[in-house]
């Protein structure tokens, strides 16, 4: 009986202690801060005006999120894309043809020849130096004419149409500025020699092309950076 009474007395004490803790100024401050952060726009850090909720369920001021989307159509909180992401590739053409020539490790099939061509032009507002001229250039890349190669070619076409294969910047090999350079998608530009001439290395390159082109075409690339030339 004594134990039961002590148990009954202990419960109100615990509840009372918890209520006392919840009534402290510190608790109110924390609750208010959490509530306020949920109501604030994560871009301007002020109360949301003309609330706009994205499909990822994050909300912002309408003007704030519009200004962000003009640069990149992705949620500033979770990085979910809303729409199609395009890069800074200058105007040019991509021509795909088939050849009987064979690539190392793919002697059972011909090859896909991709010809990129860019005329000289003037940098736009999305480029490093708007108004500055850049020279014309062309690049040739190769893929095996197998099922995987055809898939990569289709993805590269989609990435090219979204201006993600090239950009304007500094050439890694020459150091020249204001030139058309490769972007983050690797290409094989030599049919025979070079470090990727053997079958294993070329198969690995094909896999990387597939992966990076798929990422680019689906809008996963958060930014466009010229890395090789």
Automatic annotation (TrEMBL):
The record, for Gene3D superfamilies, names: 3.30.390.130, Zinc/RING finger domain, C3HC4 (zinc finger)
From the UniProt record, list the reaction(s) this protein catalyses: S-ubiquitinyl-[E2 ubiquitin-conjugating enzyme]-L-cysteine + [acceptor protein]-L-lysine = [E2 ubiquitin-conjugating enzyme]-L-cysteine + N(6)-ubiquitinyl-[acceptor protein]-L-lysine
- GO CC terms: cytoplasm
EC number(s) given by UniProt: 2.3.2.27
Q: Which SUPFAM superfamilies match?
A: RING/U-box
Which leading EC class covers this enzyme? transferase
Output one GO MF annotation.
ubiquitin protein ligase activity
What subcellular compartments does it reside in? Answer: Cytoplasm
Q: Which InterPro entries match?
A: Deltex_C, Deltex_C_sf, Deltex_fam, Znf_C3HC4_RING-type, Znf_RING, Znf_RING/FYVE/PHD, Znf_RING_CS
GO terms classed as biological process: Notch signaling pathway; protein ubiquitination
Pathway the protein acts in: Protein modification; protein ubiquitination
Task: Identify the residues that the record assigns to the RING-type domain, covering every copy.
Answer: 41-79
What family is this?
Belongs to the Deltex family.
What is this protein's record name? E3 ubiquitin-protein ligase
Organism encoding this protein: Scophthalmus maximus (Turbot)
